[in-house]
């Protein structure tokens, strides 16, 4: 039932934006009762958080595939992963809907990517910390943590704010992170 509800919430959000998604509409689309949705998610904010966390976990699974086993060259591997995030986020209908809504002044799901993003940041940073630790054995843990933090925050920033093309952005971000680690 949980997956059906999340799938319905995703479909409705992609079709009309989170601002237009009600728990009643999600329950109807998922063919479950509205009280069941409330029981599972608590409220609309709980559903939104669960939806963003699920999508992020799936998305970060793809990022992990870009990193592991990765290219032999650490810089090329990191650049590939950052470029993947910057390009694939625009192909993912839910992430694209959140980003476009934020750019148009609606931030209803955006806080789950920014201000209330602990599960997202923590998961992404954990993935990067583990990868960077393998690629830079013996480096100071604080330096690894800082590099992971910079990578995640700057990548999300570039997703939310229109800017340069993905490839040069990935190159600059990778160069900055590698400089930090050297």
From TrEMBL:
Alphabetic keyword roster: DNA-binding, Transcription, Transcription regulation
PROSITE patterns named among the record's database cross-references: HTH_TETR_2
Pfam families named in the record: TetR_C_35, TetR_N
Domain called HTH tetR-type: residue spans: 1-59
InterPro entries linked to this entry: AlkX_C, Homeodomain-like_sf, HTH-type_TetR-like_transc_reg, HTH_TetR
Claim: Amino-acid biosynthesis is one of the keywords in the record: no
Gene3D superfamilies linked to this entry: Tetracycline Repressor, domain 2
DNA-binding region: 22-41
Official protein name in the record: HTH tetR-type domain-containing protein
């Amino acid at each position: 039932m949980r997956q059906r509800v999340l799938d319905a919430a995703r479909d409705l959000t992609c079709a009309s934006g989170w601002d237009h998604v009600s728990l009643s509409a999600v329950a109807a689309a998922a063919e479950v009762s509205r009280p069941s949705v409330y029981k599972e998610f608590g409220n609309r904010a709980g559903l939104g958080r669960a939806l963003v966390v699920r999508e992020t976990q799936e998305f970060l699974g793809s990022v992990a595939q870009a990193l592991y086993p990765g290219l032999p060259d650490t810089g090329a591997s990191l650049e590939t992963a950052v470029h993947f995030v910057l390009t694939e986020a625009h192909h993912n209908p839910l992430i694209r809907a959140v980003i476009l809504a934020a750019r148009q002044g609606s931030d209803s799901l955006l806080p789950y990517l920014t201000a209330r993003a602990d599960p997202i940041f923590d998961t992404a940073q954990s993935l990067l910390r583990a990868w960077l630790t393998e690629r830079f054995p013996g480096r100071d843990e604080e330096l690894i943590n800082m590099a992971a933090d910079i990578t995640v925050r700057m990548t999300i920033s570039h997703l939310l704010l229109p800017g340069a093309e993905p490839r040069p952005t990935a190159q600059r971000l990778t160069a900055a992170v590698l400089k930090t680690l050297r």
